[in-house]
Design goal:
The chain is mainly α and 80 residues long. Helix content is 82%, strand content 0%.
Length: 80
């Protein structure tokens, strides 16, 4: 459809429509922004993977109780 309009009107229409249908230019700052977004995305993926890995190996309540008792007993023994 655009090609038909261009054939009918000529170069002036192409000049006017080129501002509307112009493909985006790949400027260096846009590419840097895409690179930063990619690095941020990878950082988030790594953090999520580490979080779920730690969640699988989380200590149970019994393990926490034993650890706290060991710390409390050690402090009591040091104070004596």
């Amino acid at each position: 459809m655009i090609a038909a309009v261009l054939r009918l009107v000529g170069n002036k229409a192409y000049f006017l429509l080129s501002f509307i249908f112009k493909p985006p230019r790949k400027e260096p700052r846009i590419m840097i922004a895409y690179g930063c977004l990619g690095i941020l995305f990878l950082f988030i993926i790594i953090k999520i993977a580490v979080y779920f890995n730690r969640q699988k190996h989380a200590p149970t309540h019994e393990d926490l109780d034993e650890t706290l008792l060991a710390i409390a007993n050690r402090r009591r023994d040091d104070a004596s």
